[in-house]
Design brief:
Structural class: alpha/beta
Largest sheet: 5 strands, parallel
Strand order of the largest sheet: 2-3-4-1-5
Shape: globular
Number of helices: 21
Oligomer: single chain
CATH class of the largest domain: Alpha Beta
Number of strands: 10
Number of domains: 3
Strand content: 5-15%
CATH superfamily of the largest domain: P-loop containing nucleotide triphosphate hydrolases
């Protein structure tokens, strides 16, 4: 019987039927009853209420400094929403500078790509603010699965006043009536050539068209039309530029027909944040919310976030609320621990039940910890890792070989992983998008909390322990 079968409880004495669900054994969400919330003279808690009004005003009954701090925290750390307040824009200064110079100095179109949660939408929103400050006409559109070229660019053209068209004087009757460039487009489905013909006559301003969530659109024709439009606009030096953003592992995943427009675009894969940038993000939140993070708490968030602004913001948000709920404005490691548990519960909810059961069973011989570390390496690489990542994590040749054997057997049995063969060689990919961050957070939490203890070398020995289990 293989070590995988033993870990998963397979065989004559299988305990798979009695295995507890992951939600119960790892991360059971419990809502504590705060004694302060009980009604006077009652053993039951008072009925939950919203603590602020729909107008974002604090409830008069909760007008204390902790109620105000809670409201400020919600505004300072918004993990489910992009950054729109420039004060909360942390790090990325060099990236933003590069984008602006590409648009302004090189007059190229921009393609931003990278993993989900890496901050692309926040980047384009702050870029849009900077462009508006420079009096650009900025038109933002979030693409959908059924985005249509004709509908999208008629809507874009409707945002450009006719007074910026060379064929009409500012005092022309059409311009004074508030007509737009959309009124010049022909009837029927418009083509990229027809759109570029109209845009070519724009004068006196510059137009920035932002197409966010570009990867969501499934239409090959739509993507091809966008590539053709970029080429036409570039060839004619039109005062209209596109910024395209989406989830992708590389440029060709996002935009069709790259060879024909490569010289017309600036492509940038958004990198994960450096430690100093994560600290900057947290410090920005401190200044806005009025709470403060103790240095170990900030280090805990930085360690677990792994360069992800989404995870850093999520943990800062939850840990801040955990401290405020306890009547404190200073956030410690214990508050971040609560936040990590809540983050794990959120990611767990995005994982299928079969994968949850598989994760729950991979508890022996450090296998889940091994997967967690490799998950961290894969988070900004399309959920993939390869032999080079294993070698970095396990410098010992013997332990790296043992780790690879663990991964090969998991892959062969279809447990969480699958193999990918391409021109770059063999790599491994997690089957579900939510599994890598979940496994990484579990592993990172353990590593951080164990870091104060004397090193026992157990982590390097984990692959060997898994190998020994396979031999037994």
């Amino acid at each position: 019987m293989s070590w995988i079968d033993r870990i998963l409880g397979r065989g004559p004495k299988s305990k798979a039927q009695t295995a507890k669900p992951l939600a119960n054994s790892i991360m059971t969400a419990q809502v504590p009853v705060d004694a302060a919330a009980r009604k006077p003279g009652s053993l039951l808690p008072s009925f939950p209420k919203f603590q602020s009004t729909a107008g974002d005003q604090l409830s008069p009954k909760l007008s204390d400094r902790f109620g105000a701090a809670r409201m400020k925290l919600r505004a300072a750390f918004t993990p489910s929403q992009p950054v729109v307040d420039r004060r909360m824009f942390a790090g990325r200064v060099e990236v933003l500078t590069t984008l602006i110079r590409s648009l302004e100095d090189q007059r190229v179109h921009v393609v931003l790509y990278g993993e989900r949660g890496i901050g692309k939408t926040s980047l384009v929103h702050v870029l849009a603010q900077a462009a508006r400050d420079a009096r650009y006409i900025v038109i933002y559109s979030s693409c959908g699965a059924t985005s249509n070229f004709d509908e999208l660019f008629r809507a874009v053209a409707a945002e450009i006043p006719l007074l910026f068209h060379s064929g009409f004087a500012p005092t022309a009757a059409e311009a004074e009536r508030g007509q737009s460039v959309a009124d010049l487009l022909p009837a029927g489905e418009v083509s990229p050539r027809q759109v570029s013909d109209v845009f070519a006559k724009i004068i006196g301003t510059r137009v920035l068209i932002i197409l966010d969530e570009f990867d969501i659109c499934n239409s090959t024709e739509f993507r091809r039309n966008i590539a053709e439009l970029i080429k036409n606009l570039s060839d004619r030096s039109v005062r209209v530029q596109l910024v395209i953003a989406g989830v992708a592992g590389d440029l060709t995943e996002l935009v069709e027909h790259i060879p024909s427009i490569r010289r017309n675009i600036f492509a940038l894969q958004v990198p994960k944040m450096a430690t100093s940038e994560i600290h900057h993000l947290i410090e920005n939140g401190q200044s806005i919310s009025g709470v403060s993070f103790e240095p170990p708490a900030m280090d805990f968030i930085t360690s677990v976030s792994n360069g992800s602004p989404y995870i850093a913001c999520l943990l800062s948000h939850h840990s801040g609320l955990a401290a405020v709920d306890k009547g404190r404005l200073k956030i410690g490691v214990e508050d971040v621990s609560v936040a990590v548990d809540q983050a794990l519960a959120e990611f767990q909810g995005r994982i299928s039940r079969p994968s949850q059961v598989q994760i729950e069973k991979l508890t022996k011989n450090g296998v889940r910890q091994i997967l967690g570390m490799l998950a961290g390496a894969s988070m900004f690489n399309g959920g993939r890792f390869d032999a080079a990542d294993i070698d970095v994590l396990y410098p010992s040749a013997a332990n790296a070989a043992n780790c690879r054997e663990v991964i090969e057997e998991l892959t062969a049995k279809g447990i969480l992983l699958e193999a990918v063969e391409d021109e770059y060689g063999r790599s491994y990919r997690f089957q579900e998008e939510a599994v890598p961050p979940y496994l990484w957070i579990l592993a990172a939490q353990k590593r951080f909390l164990d870091s104060a203890k004397p090193s026992s070398g157990k982590e390097e020995a984990a692959p060997a322990a898994a190998r020994a289990a396979a031999r037994s």
